[in-house]
Amino acid sequence: MLAFVTGGTGFIGANLVRLLLEQGYTVRALVRPSSSLDNLKGLPIEIVEGDLNNPRLSEIMQGCQVLFHVAALYSLWQKDQDYLYRCNVLGTRNILAAARKAGIERTVYTSSVAAIGVGESGKPVNEVYQSPVEKLIGDYKKSKYWAEQEARKALQMGQDVVIVNPSTPVGPYDIKPTPTGDIIVRFLRRKMPAYVNTGLNVIDVRDVAKGHLLALEKGKTGERYILGHQNMTLKAFLDELSQITGIPAPSSEIPSWIPLSVAWIDEKVLTLLGKTPSVPLDGVKMSTQLMYYDASKAVRELGLSQSPIKTALQDAVAWLQKMDIDYA
């Protein structure tokens, strides 16, 4: 079976491409001309250049039976609002229309728990829950919500689409890295003197990749599935890293108003002075919430794996070290 994959150069996509190859699929990957191909180096796949708003997408997809639409722009910078909309919302609309025209039999669309929102007082939420879009923090989360609505429009047109909502993946091939991967890098560099009181749902990225394939094989058309595993505080996450690496975890909690103030100055003031900000305000706002989720539906209906988080963190650390990142 020939699978068309977007976002194959990224974290989830690179793990998904490898799994598809292991399972005997032939893979055609859409990559932007400017994208690094390091995550796909040496893999026996067909690479085609283009972007999600390419008017020739349906021609590029000819001959493929299934689509994994993993690609998305991730940015917490407020200046990227329009770019987020073009990539995540219009790009999703375009590729789903192209898939319909190309005769794609089934699509797995990679949304995010960001599109679902968070529960009150840190209560884990499932696929039935939905925060009002105006309560979603930041343009990234809003763009993923509206992109998911594009998938639902495609469903109304008769397309076979299954939606998956990954939580916070950790593991190998986090090449950019993601915000969570950046936490690991800063921890390894001993640049985390304190932590904020937040929480997240963590899952091995290889389980996320398997969740995509399971969604293709077992998912119900029109349903969404949270691909998550363990709810844990940031402090517990850092303590786990400490046990793996031997590096002391920070013991001091920092009040949320301090990073909020720094981020506001960074993004609202320094940007006007022509300086590049380093702390996104929306990212700090997100950290004031406990982002906990219930993935039992995916475990029950798809058979989603729940691999140990310690193993995922060990492999994430090993991969980052193999990439020769300077931790000095």
Automatic annotation (TrEMBL):
InterPro entries per the UniProt record, alphabetical: Epimerase_deHydtase (IPR001509), Hopanoid-assoc_sugar_epimerase (IPR017829), NAD(P)-bd_dom_sf (IPR036291), NAD(P)-dependent_oxidoreduct (IPR051783)
Domain of life of the organism encoding this protein: Bacteria
Domain NAD-dependent epimerase/dehydratase, chain residue ranges per copy: 4-228
UniProt-recorded Gene Ontology molecular function terms: aldehyde dehydrogenase (NAD+) activity
GO CC aspect terms: cytoplasm
This protein's name: Dihydroflavonol 4-reductase
Species, as recorded: Aphanothece hegewaldii CCALA 016
